[in-house]
Write a structure and sequence with these properties.
Pfam families: EPSP_synthase. Belongs to the EPSP synthase family. MurA subfamily. By secondary structure, the chain is α/β, with parallel strands linked by helices. The protein is built from 14 helices and 24 strands. α5 runs parallel beside α6 and α6 packs parallel to α7. It binds uridine-diphosphate-N-acetylglucosamine (UD1) and phosphoenolpyruvate (PEP). Phosphoenolpyruvate binds next to α12.
Length: 429
């Protein structure tokens, strides 16, 4: 298993190109199941999750060709991939694949809409909470599907096709909003989703579906309207930049000090976390090329933050912010409201000498004057990268074990950071 070795203490200076967003790329790739024509996706990040989804889609009959420019080993640009689901050859998404990544469950929407049948294993993914799928099933039932759970699989049937309906989510869910939106594109009549997720990745998917011929309005607001059409066609779409990757590097620069341009990052997708970073003591400047983050040696200030659905502070940046606050002068409070078990980085951050107290969904972070490098273990994707951030700012050597979590969501992390002056390397093993 690969490990990442870091020698902390260097300031970060330079440019970090931001990759295509994992959490947009996955639903966009899944949308290829909705049409027998070619969906071309540009700026697809080279990530373990994208590779796994290629296998899952291949199993359903999606042909994939890579046509993007690759300039060489040092190239940081994403891939352009053409996905063509001429016919769906298998409507089952098996346990062996779906259990590895939660988003693969989302194939249920397009398969059901196009084939009127889907058998999809209950999902896996990051161990950050129980993560049920009841709201997906509720929405698909409202669109007319008959659903049964058989031996760990969701079996969904819509013999006469799906029909438009009012789907009112009792809580904001990104995944179920994606799936309902995709399924409703081919349903008969109008679907109205209320209390829909407003995340930028929902907007990115809606924009792609519209290019494919879907009739969707309101994506990015709490009410999305979809007028079903008979068929969708091919399209070209560029995956939006990854706001979580950009936010992660922003936290890293705020912690180590330095001056970094996050190339391609979009301020509108990161307004709340960047506002928090400003409160903490970093300088944040949106530019034509992206977002510039600067901090000199000034003290970091403590803050109180609650994770919330977009446009609130994202749960996917909570671990990274916590790492940063370990070095603030004073006591910060973080409340996690999205996932019930997303504090697994706390015990690992303690290995650096951090002082964090947990009480249910609340963490109290007492800033310490210095962190010391340590061997640590990654437990999930964003927790892993919080350990990298802590390691970059800590004195001495840090070894991050179980790096495969990082490879799910961060493209060439060690390349991007070492180009900015960090001492960081991957040790194959
Ligand atoms: C691939 C992807 O895009 N993953 C993101 C997506 O995950 P994901 O789409 O899985 O997260 P959701 O927005 O659905 O989850 C929000 C909350 O709703 C609950 N819930 C969800 C569905 C359901 O049927 N029943 C239910 O109770 C979840 O357990 C959680 O407590 O949004 C999360 C919240 O921004 C992010 O942390 C993940 O990175
Ligand atoms: C939790 C995440 O991913 P997933 O929903 O795929 O587990 C994440 O991207 O932080």
């Amino acid at each position: 298993m690969d490990r990442i070795r870091i020698v902390g203490g260097a300031r970060l200076n330079g440019t970090i190109p931001i990759s295509g967003a994992k959490n947009a790329a996955l639903p966009l790739m899944i949308a290829s199941l909705l049409t027998d024509e070619t969906l071309t996706l540009a700026n697809l990040p080279r990530l373990a999750d994208v590779a796994l989804l290629k296998r899952i889609l291949g199993n359903h009959g999606v042909d994939m060709t890579v046509s993007g420019k690759r300039i060489g080993d040092g190239d940081l640009a994403g891939e352009t991939v053409q996905l063509t689901a001429r016919t769906i050859v298998d409507t089952t998404a098996p346990y062996e694949l779906v259990s590895k990544m939660r988003a693969s469950f989302w194939v249920i929407g397009p398969l059901l809409a196009r084939e009127h049948f889907a058998k999809v294993s209950l999902p896996g993914g990051c161990a950050i909470g129980t993560r049920p799928v009841d709201l997906f099933l509720m929405a698909l039932e409202q669109l007319g599907a008959e659903i049964e759970i058989e031996a760990g699989y969701v079996v969904a049937r819509a013999p006469n096709g799906l029909r438009g309906a009012h789907v009112d989510f009792p809580k904001v869910t990104v995944g179920a909003t994606h799936v309902t939106m995709m399924a409703a594109t081919l349903a008969k009549g109008e679907t109205v989703i209320t209390n829909a997720a407003r995340e930028p990745e929902i907007v990115d998917l809606a924009e792609c579906l519209i290019k494919m011929g879907a009739k969707i309005t309101g994506a990015g607001t709490s009410t999305i309207r979809i007028e079903g059409v008979d068929r969708l066609h091919g399209a070209w779409h560029e995956v939006m930049p990854d706001r979580i990757e950009a936010g992660t590097y922003a936290m890293a620069v705020a912690m180590t000090g330095g001056d970094v341009l996050l190339e391609g990052a979009r301020y509108d997708t990161l307004a709340r976390p960047l506002e928090i970073l400003t409160e903490v003591g970093a300088e944040v400047t949106p530019t034509n090329e992206g977002i510039r983050i600067y901090r000199n040696g000034a003290d970091l200030k403590p803050v109180d933050v609650t994770t919330e659905p977009f446009p609130g502070f994202p749960t996917d940046l909570q671990a990274q912010l916590m790492a940063l606050l370990c070095r603030a002068q004073g006591t910060s409070h973080i409340r996690e409201t999205i996932f019930e078990n997303r504090f697994m980085h706390v015990q690992e951050l303690a290995r650096f000498g951090a002082e964090i107290h947990l009480d249910g969904q609340n963490a109290t972070v007492v800033g310490v004057p210095a962190l010391k490098g340590a061997p640590v273990m990654a437990t999930d994707l964003r927790a892993s990268v919080s350990l990298v951030i802590a390691g970059l700012a800590a004195e001495g050597e840090t070894m991050v074990n179980r790096v495969y979590h990082l490879d799910r969501g961060f493209e060439r992390l060690e390349d991007k950071l070492s180009r900015c002056g960090a001492t960081i390397e991957r040790i194959a093993g």
